[in-house]
Design a protein that fits this description.
Length: about 350
């Protein structure tokens, strides 16, 4: 089995974006009440969902031999910097509901993960009701946690700050991981997917290195996407910084709790990731139809067809199986339980 731990609903029907546009327009104090969207949310039928999935993610999964995708709302759509907590909360509910519906339409192919209703300067504990609903009612096996709700201005405290602890406590209670994933950058100095995403991955790793979060939460699991940003490439730097900060070696300090995915879009990058990072800490992922949708002219294949890189990396059969399936089942226990229930 091949499990893709990093999928987003980037192809949602247009009605979703139209509803969001009306919500944003209604935030203007001078807007007319008629500008507000339907409080019940966008009207999207099952046939529209099928059309948005079958010609896109599902088609590519079939072509690439991917069995299951952990499916969450579109990362750039989270946009926590827009509006207040009330706006973010309703938006998160709508997006999470759609991913849940996709998982119900294709129960053996998609498993939901949830976005949280974060908002700049707002206590992260306000996310707990939606986190609870997502797990208990929607069957979410993970959440996306934005370390920078300000959208590229980094006004939030580091991930090791105690203000995040209520969220970690709930994650530990449910035994689900969080993918540390930022959203749209509203800072023109940081391109959203080319700079902000990768900066955030690297920043999150360094924040965790500086702190002692996992002493307080020994079972907490965090997935840093996009191959861990710059972390694998600068592993020696981080090892040296751990020594300078009087921290244990990275393998002891972080790597029982931190995992990287394989959303790295060329062979040398994947080879480096697999050579530097312990195999048990690497999870297969593609983030297909995401930031990079074009075809590599050197190979004739899509950049985000990461299975090709993994299988060309020269791993043993046991390590390949670990990266493509076993590691995800260990990091996402609720996913493993669901697959086991399905007889897989």
């Amino acid at each position: 089995m091949i499990i893709d731990c990093h999928g987003h609903f980037t192809t949602a029907p247009p009605a979703l974006g139209e509803w969001r546009d009306r919500q944003i327009a209604a935030l203007d104090a001078l807007s007319s009440p008629s500008a507000a969207p339907d409080p019940a949310g966008p009207r999207i039928g099952d046939d529209e969902l099928r059309e948005s999935i079958e010609g896109n993610q599902l088609r590519l999964m079939d072509e690439r031999g991917i069995d299951v995708t952990v499916f969450s709302p579109r990362a750039s759509f989270m946009a926590h910097h827009i509006g207040d907590f009330t706006a973010s909360s309703r938006w998160a509910e709508i997006c999470n509901d759609l991913c849940h519906r996709v998982s119900r339409l294709y129960p053996e192919r998609f498993v939901p993960a949830a976005m949280l209703p974060q908002s700049p300067g707002v206590d992260p504990a306000t996310c707990l009701p939606e986190l609870t609903r997502a797990v208990e009612e929607l069957g979410a096996v993970a959440v996306n946690l934005n370390p920078d709700p300000s959208g590229g201005h980094w006004t939030a405290p580091p991930l090791t700050d105690r203000s995040w602890y209520p969220v970690y406590e709930k994650l530990a209670e449910y035994d689900i991981p969080a993918m540390v994933h930022v959203s749209t950058s509203c800072n023109p100095a940081f391109h959203t997917t080319g700079a902000h995403y990768l900066n955030a991955d690297t920043t999150a790793f360094m924040q965790l290195l500086q702190g002692d979060l996992f002493a307080d939460f020994p079972t907490l699991r965090l997935v840093i996407p996009h191959g861990g940003g710059a972390a694998p490439y600068h592993w020696g730097r981080f090892q040296g910084l751990a020594m300078a900060l009087d921290k244990p070696p990275l393998e002891e300090h972080l790597m029982n709790n931190v995992f990287f995915d394989t959303c790295v879009y060329h062979q040398p990058g994947i080879d480096l990731l697999l050579d530097v990072v312990p195999t048990r800490n690497v999870l297969f992922a593609s983030e297909m139809i995401g930031a990079v949708r074009s075809i590599d002219p050197k190979t004739g294949h899509h950049f985000d067809d990461t299975r090709r890189y993994i299988e060309a990396a020269g791993m043993s059969d046991a390590d390949l199986t670990a990266v493509q399936e076993r590691n995800a089942r260990a990091v996402y226990p609720r996913l493993d339980a669901l697959l086991t229930q399905q007889g897989r």
